[in-house]
């Protein structure tokens, strides 16, 4: 054990184990999580070479191997609870992806929810036994976010009772679905349904892609890998071009909409039912943002405690780089953010399960709010976490660029969450739509409830005259007071966005153009709303913590989170009259004090995330702090070191020397 | 040609070709640049498969091949002017690196400047004929920025007149130098010189690493590749452990310091002489930041003009995504920044050459200012450009993640500039040291000159009482007025940092601790100083533009750049009383107008950067806008598509299906 990191742990003022229980949601959950982690970590079948040493084809191969093994192991161990499966997978995947990910996340759930009874009986056993290896093909080369724009067609032919599937243009080629390129022999394909000369919009169809015996693509199916990406090396994201592929009528998923034998289209009863999965996945991503940032902070903070560099006081030994104020200012607010997002993730999970219960009883009333919240928070947390991972990486200096730090892998694996499952700017604008709608309702005298209820107050309290005359009451040492300030900022920015739309309308532009011409303000309002929600939930979490030591350190983190947000957005708080200039200096001063206060607990706070070395897979983030020996050992395994002299010497350098 | 992008070009209001001349520094330079580019692009020897389809070993192989070819070509074409060589190389490298980069950038220049006459005669011909393939080994596993901390030793043995080179600890192993792993047979090694029982600090030594005949590592030399990184796949960044390697006395570079035969150490005459290269490289990086951002903007803006998505007005066709205000707000300020950095790069280049002239005549007076300026601007521009590349990438939606967009390569190739040649936070603090020193001189009544002369005024004008009472005079439509505002902001933030140090000192902490406890404020002050310099230089450039059309569009860009900076740092401008709250609303409004104003010229403004398709190597950034056909074509060449069925199917999936 590195003595620096041992000393850090000795100086901590709280019980790390207890904090781990809080993060897991209880001592029993911690215990079970660790059992599952041990199953994976101690399993010799899962020992493999660092993926970074492999070619892309080898990485894909290794991922398929692992996925196949995992399926057998889960059955062997009898792990079937979704949360436990999730836990098992997140250990065995490491920072990477599962080859059969879409089969589990999209193919099976879509079959479960959109098959009618006969279809269920046929397809679910095939999928559960992996005879049908499936993916979900929605996105096309020319169409992502805007589903109505999708071009793939399914034209019903009553003569044969088949759908004829086509990719009529180059932009209609399915593009990006994971597992589509090489792995899947089936896909659920989203296509525009044409029957009896009319288009009825998007429906889902089960399309066989490859022979179930030979895995060779079927006639009319042009399928393959879309090529290397920024990360995701082990996934065969694919393309799919359909050329008059005929599938039987009962391959359209018919639980809701139907096409009868003669081609008659029968409408689905409600459109709300497909909402759920999307909301669930976005809620999960919020937790993932906390997870990715927590891993990054663990690596950067442990490394900062063992890395010595430069000097603060001349003549003294090189200090730990964590002693530099600038290093603390980079890392500690991100550490606070990681805690915040973990707690928000817990909250989203609870809300989701509560509302799902309501929905199954036919009560959809909270769905729009959850939809708006999950969209905005997904964007808010993934943007911040992505940028934060890079800050952590660069805070490790040169070694942060080495793949042995794991930080490059964490970044390229996480950053796509900014784009998939709803592009972030689009997500922010969806939340804004809900905020503006709520604001207008409040303005019209309706009493709002739920998370937007603050917009009721805004009508009363945020009149232009009152802003400047309202006495500033924010106490920068009091979290409740800061939550209030965030709330009023959100209210003010929602109001400003609404007024911008109003002003645009007065220029006689259309509603739609007024919206687009106010989009910058709308995103800003959503951002402020989400920021308020996060601060509020962090503060609420403190209320649940009884232990004094824990409460103290988490309060420091929460205060740091809130104050750093104020400093970063000081213009908003000054502009809206929520803070005065002298208070802003207090904020800066207080931030520095909080950094110093957190310094002795920094390592313990990342220890509490409880990532085992085998999960972090980072030389810089090792629990024992013995970084350099292991970096050397790792480097010696680099494929370029397999021979003393690389063949390029004989091929190019020796001839060059001879030529000159 | 895609009709959308054709229409964009038809709508431009200025002469693209003329703007290209300005960016190149004159019509003749444009002409010559294009000639050189054509040499590379039309050369069949340089045609190669996309590096993204290759394994790391193959990429390294391809890079060595290209470097060897390039050396012969440059001789064949008689290109010897450094600027022309730089141009040639930047085309042939693309977004990647040169295998022999360090040989040219560090090994040769160090020999040129630090050899004495006899050494020069021996080593320069060996290096110029590539018999000696060299690199520069400074950084160690445990030591980067802080040179005094380096641990490698060179102990003089008068008995044999040799230096004994050693890596005494694991942290002393040389780590990171490019070309060290496999390519080089020599290295200039920085080591602590020990002679006659005393350590005389760092000196440079020529150390043979590999046999000049067989390329096999010499006895005592443990050398290899440090393993895969975030980018730089084609470079063999290496490690070097020296175990009692003996080299003759005359392998120490002795132009300045010397060790005589008996071991007597002779001090160098001046320490300033080694300053120059560092300043030069940092100045170059500023230009590179403009370059990287310009390439990214070219890709994202061209793609945004041909990509259609969603809807603004219901019922109408999907609009070009560049019509969304949020997309404009992401890209156009970055476009303005790219222009700003290109102009700042030109300026740094001129200043460097002017000051180098002075230095060669013994006048070092301007060196500290240039040193401070290049350090801060290097940090300021590389941070912004790195984040900006990622914004451009994500503005391309899913396709920005494909390696065919080139944006991942641009990012991973550029982002290390934040860390190498001086870690950015350290750089900011070096600039801050100069600013604080200047501020103290001004406070003591000295009249400052040069770029910091504004600190003279600050003493007179920025007294606390005057800040609040000073009438706000900033005109948000007038660039000169905005330059003034940036200047006063910088002055105020330098003052605040100085006062923070003062306050710390009053707590009876040491100077060094006071500095560290104010580091956040110091970085902020440097940042504001650099921002002021960039705005000022952009405004100054406008003064050189005679053409009305060009002047108009560049003025719009400059105004956008200045106002967006104010919006992003609105807290500073409000806090220092430079702007009022109503003015801030004006800034937001004006920004939106400027976005709309730039919209018709966006494609033409990136066309003016004049990157040929072969240099961008981006399917999304193609000049003809025909994105989708070429993306499909590129994907089909993916190595995973070489076989219809991947071997993993037979190895893992078929057995799995049989097992269940």
TrEMBL record, chains A, B:
Domain Acyl-CoA oxidase/dehydrogenase middle: start-end pairs: 136-245
Q: What InterPro entries does the entry give?
A: ACO (IPR034171), ACOX_C_alpha1 (IPR055060), Acyl-CoA_ox_N (IPR029320), Acyl-CoA_Oxase/DH_mid-dom (IPR006091), Acyl-CoA_Oxase/DH_mid-dom_sf (IPR046373), Acyl-CoA_oxidase (IPR012258), Acyl-CoA_oxidase_C (IPR002655), AcylCo_DH-like_C (IPR036250)
Q: Where in the cell is it found?
A: Peroxisome
Q: Chief localization class?
A: other
Question: Record's CDD domains?
Answer: AXO
Sorted keywords for this record are: FAD, Fatty acid metabolism, Flavoprotein, Lipid metabolism, Oxidoreductase, Peroxisome, Phosphoprotein
- Cofactor(s) listed in the protein's UniProt record: FAD
One Pfam family per UniProt: ACOX_C_alpha1
The domain of life for this entry's organism is Eukaryota
Q: Give the protein name, as stated in the record.
A: Acyl-coenzyme A oxidase
Q: Identify the species of origin.
A: Salmo salar (Atlantic salmon)
